Amino acid sequence: MGISTNPLLFIVKASIAIKTILAFSLYRTGLSIRKLRQVSRHNFVILMYHRIIPLNEVGEAVQAGIYVRQDTFERHIRFLKSHFSIVPISELFSGKAGKSCVTDNKPPCVLTFDDGWYDFYACAFPILETHQVPATYFLPTDFIGTKDRFWTDKLGYLFAVRDNRVSLQKANRSSANCLVNQLEKLKGSIESRLEQAIAMLKGYRNEEINEILSELSVRWQLDPSKPDRAFLSWEEVREMTQSGLITFGSHTASHKILTTLTDDEIHDELMRSRERLIAEQAVDPSFIPFCYPNGNYNKEVVSMVRDAGYNLAVTTKKGWNHVESDLFTLRRTGIHQDISSTEAMFACRILNLF
């Protein structure tokens, strides 16, 4: 099952190839770097990372859009130190970003990471320590210190194991759930099917998604659990807090998309996460940032986040921010391996050229 059976995947890969060539041309002529130097010091960029993983852990069951290789990440840090003032996220709340904190005529940059993966501690934190670079990590507090996994990770694992089980028997009847039938009929590589499946399911409530995963596990005779842990422990969180480099924030308690919940459920997610972060001594109670799961929010959700005692919130809307931007709808530029594997592509991504 290759590219020939996946026209969408072929288009994506072709697009990345074109962007690679374009980025190289802009970088070689110096245009992208000159563009960076022209950015107003009153604008700042927030970069959004998820997973930092070593080359030997890259596989089709890992979403292409959520990881950067460890060697690539180190190149990113070197590039950012040359062209930006990398500042803690608390500088945004204090109003210093883009103003008094910038003394070298470089635009401010804030590094953020989502989801609480263990590989941040194993792969990203040592690099940040070596270079003494600050970053912010948004934690879904119910998952920290557990062996649980996100439903997206479980689904990718199911697809991967199913493909590798030659003796696996197909279910001999269709499901009463049309989504289960659609998932079983997906074609193409694991990467392609996983992206399609996530797009299909992410608008549903977690309870419905878990029911689908449970049925798939039974139909495919597979266990979606894995023996190793995916998330940080609270001991690791406290160690990184004490380093003075890492600021932790909330990514809700259970990582549910807030716009799919009732007001009472949203309030519970916000307060439970905030209280756990404080209880585990992961944050300074006077400053706790927030991150909307999947970037989904509306006016009501923003108001509830503010009222819950958070000091700012980041979205997944792409673009730069200005010193007068709304602190509860801050934009971020998503970074993943495919579109940042070289300095040239990384520069173009930060500049929103693609």
List keywords for this structure.
TIM Barrel; 11 strands; 354 residues; 2 domains; alpha/beta; 7-stranded mixed β-sheet; single chain; two-stranded parallel sheet
Q: What features would you describe in this structure?
A:
Helix content is 44%, strand content 12%. The chain is of the alpha/beta class and 354 residues long. 36% of the residues are buried. The protein starts with 6 loop residues before the first helix and ends with a helix. It is globular. Residues 1-5 have low confidence and may be disordered. The strands form three sheets. Strands 1, 4, 5, 6, 7, 10 and 11 form a seven-stranded mixed beta sheet that branches. The protein folds into two domains: 3-54 and 65-146 and 231-350, Glycoside hydrolase/deacetylase (TIM Barrel); 151-220, no CATH class. The protein has helices at residues 7-28, 31-37, 70-83, 90-94, 118-131, 151-164, 178-185, 190-201, 206-220, 234-242, 263-279, 299-307, 343-350, and strands spanning 43-49, 51-53, 67-69, 85-86, 108-114, 135-139, 246-250, 289-291, 312-314, 321-322, 333-334. α3 runs parallel beside α5, α6 (151-164) packs antiparallel against α8 and α6 (151-164) packs parallel to α9. It contains 13 helices and eleven strands. The longest helix has 22 residues, at 7-28.
